[in-house]
Amino acid sequence: MRIFISYRTNAEPDRTVCDELCQGLTAPGHQVFVDRQLPVGVRWAEEIERHIAEADFLVLLLSEESSHSEMVLAEVEKARDVAASRGGTPRILPVRLTYRGKLPYPLSTYVDPLQHLYWGGAEDTETVLKGLLGAIGGQEEPPPSKSWRVTPPGDRMGPPPAQAQVREPLPTPGGTLVPEDPLYISRDSDAEALRVIQRGPGQTITIKGPRQVGKSSLLMRVLAAALDQGRQGVLVDFQLLAAATGHEGEFFRSFLQEILTQLDLPPLTAAEWDASATPAQCCTRLMERLVLQKLPCPLTLACDEADLVLALPFRNDFFGMFRAWHGKRANPVQRRRWGNLDLVLVTSTEPYLFIDRDDQSPFNVGAVLALADFTRAQVAMLNEAHGTPLGDDEVTELQRLTGGHPYLVRKALYAVSARGQGRPPREILRHAAEDGGPFGDHLQRHLLNVLKVPELRPVLTAVLAGQSIANEVAVHRLIGAGLVRREGTRIVPRCAAYAEYFRGKV
User: Fold this and answer.
1) Which CATH superfamily includes the segment(s) 188-370?
2) Hey, which of 83, 198, 432, 476 would disulfide with 437, CB 3.0 to 4.6 Å?
3) Entry pTM
4) Could you report the per-residue pLDDT of 10-31, keeping only the tens digit for each?
């Protein structure tokens, strides 16, 4: 069998366990691939893609660090995509490494339903290896090597990592922040979004910005504000409807069923779906009859990851339906019901590149809020929230390096606060944009994504060289990915860390 081991390359016990499992899985004659010796670049990206595409099994090592690794998530998502087209292979075999915490979203949606093995120390290696070999040899599910339970994030195994000037263990950066999180930094767009939702029911809000800028966290704040005003709320994440994207009717039905399920309303029946109408027409009629007529209070419908729908062939019909829902509020006959519906949409891609007509788009009506990177003052506020591990000069250097990129600022502050291990903060920042630095995992995933889309590579190369760009579609894809930005009439790397890392690699 061909086996791909996905793990956090510069973390322990991840690396040690990977070495031991690699040796044990190779002994019976299986072919095991471990990403270790390839130089990061074009060949590295091609090899990762090829070995996952050819694998029969993906052994997933889940420590606290690897569960927040962007590269590990990218490998799992690639394995799922391949399995969907290859009848279920590669199969994912998760192994927990001394970590009982909840997995972050969206990794949790892919892995939680699977049977996990558990490694708590060297004494468990043989049992874990036996479980993996059993599963690979045809056993339906690997037997758990030891009983384990998911515990709250604060209930960790052993003492938390040493920290300076921070009273509580720092959460690993990444994912959506809850509205009351003390590490959440409010921006002008936050205040505007809350002002709009507090005007009363019947609002349309679009939150847009590149990846990892805080769109989903702001969405949670808007939804919480709506609930505080007595509305009901539904959060639809289009990542979770991925299985229905192959057929238009199935996608619309799945979307409506998700709304009904979250509101504890009766499920949709086959007889209620009118196959003689278009999916958008049928979904609209049932939305009014089964949802809006049944609810005793206004509804806020929050939609995350709208970019996934923009890539589908029926995007115009789906978002044209949303635009029609927005327009129904102006109709005196329909306003009584449709005026109680808020639409809150999140996107990182410019929708006008995909939606052919302006009057079919819900993204250019209502309040359109663009999230910006942090200012230096906001970086300084986040530094204080972490216990002020950086001095003024180091805050300035962090702002120069990241350009205020919210996720990279969090990654850097986590590294100097929770994992510095005595290294001076300035030294950590100096090596942050290297493969083994705090940003390495994030940068490698971006590189992998760029290199597997042929038309993006020459455009990013031209941006790094300061050249003019003619391929506007590719530019917008790179902006949506958060890799470049507009500076007047020029397209430039989003931050110094990206410019330093990608130069010579694409």
Assistant:
1) P-loop containing nucleotide triphosphate hydrolases (3.40.50.300)
2) 432
3) 0.82
4) 889 999 999 999 999 999 999 9
